[in-house]
Structures are given as structure tokens and as C-alpha cells.
Amino acid sequence: MTDSRANDNSLKTETSNNSGFIPGDDTWTQWRNVFAILTDRMTDEGKEQFRIARDTRNEAADCKRCEDQRDYLLQFSPVIRFMSDSIRQLGGNLSSHNIYCRRCTSRKAGGFDPDYGILLCANEMKDQSHLEDTLAHEMVHAYDHLRFKVDWSNNLRHAACTEIRASSLSGECRWAREFFRRGQWKLTQQHQECVRRRAILSVRARPGCKDEAHAEKVVNEVWDSCFRDTRPFDEIYR
User: Fold this and answer.
1) What average pLDDT does this structure show over 12-22?
2) Which one of 13, 112, 161, 231 has the largest count of C-beta atoms within 10 Å of its C-beta?
């Protein structure tokens, strides 16, 4: 005879958080979660739980794919090779030993630390092109750190300037990426608006920034000189 109380407890466990997310790694549970998302029966909290569980489950495969793509780009990507050479000329060295592929819990694509190198968030990489843009972005930060002695901790103008340059030069604001992936459909001033938007978001996230208005003010103060500065490139070409 089946114990109805056990079934009731199991059902309560599945639905107790009211988020619509059901824990479990088996295929049937995964399909139930996907169906809940597609039918809009999962809350934002549940979707985040689903993403965390998926990223944890796929961590080894995501990191392996990220490392393979990283190594390929270091060898064959024109923009990554050019940035690597430019950084080397300033006394720096970025390669597979200090460009790390890791699972990230925050929803970002990567980061640069002057003491450790570059972080690529393997679970956030959509494809090799996305990884290339992210790596190029962080390499611009590395170049700026060596070339301009960026004060990362205390100077928001420095942070704004390097974010403007990184978004402008990395290729992440090129028209096709904005149009097809981010739904930004303007045909004029699209590149500039993308760079400005992403720079403001980055500055806003820094501890010394008061609010979005403060971030926008700082970005505007350095915009003209930093957007025009395309070093080490001759021009914006991506």
C-alpha cells in the first residue's frame, strides 16, 4: 500500500518555495523546469535557482570549452594576438597561465585584476565570438593599467575612461551584436550609445559611485578624450 503522506511530503518539498523551480539533476526534472519557464510558471527567483543548478552541473564542461576557445583565440585571433603583443611591449604578459576560465556566481562575463590577470566566466560565455569580445575587453583594461597607471580603487574618472575604451575597442558594441543580441535597433549613433550605456553601468557598480546620475556625470566628464583614444589601435575597426 502506498503511503499517501510520503507523496504529500514530496509534493510539498517540490513546491514549498513557490518559485516554480524543482531541484534535481535527472532529465525529467530538467524538462519540467524548462516547461515551467516556457509557460511563465516560474518566478524570477526560480529562474535564478535553475541557472545556478545548471551552471553547477555543467561547470567542468563549460570550463573545458572556455579553455579550448581561449587557447585557440590566443593563437589565431587577430585582435587577441595584437593585444597580447601590445601588452608584452609594455612589460606585461597575458597567456593561458593567467587567463582563467571559472564558473562565476555573479552575472558578468569576465573581469581584470592587476595582481592576478583575467577572469573569463565560463558559464556566461554564449559562444567563441562572445568569449573573444570579452577577452579583448579585459585586455584593453590590462593595457590601460600598464600604459596609464589606472587607479582602480579610488578614481572613478580612471575607471570610466578605461570602460569607455574597452567597450569601444573590444568589438562588443559593434552594430551586429547590438542589433541581433541586445535588441538595440537604432541605425545611427548606435556604437556611441552602446559604449556610453555599458560604461555607465560599470561605473555605477563601483563602491565609490553614489547613484546612476553620478555614474553618468563621471562618464560624460571623460567621454570626449577617452572615446577618441584608440591606442594601441590606429582606429576602431571591430
Assistant:
1) 65
2) 161
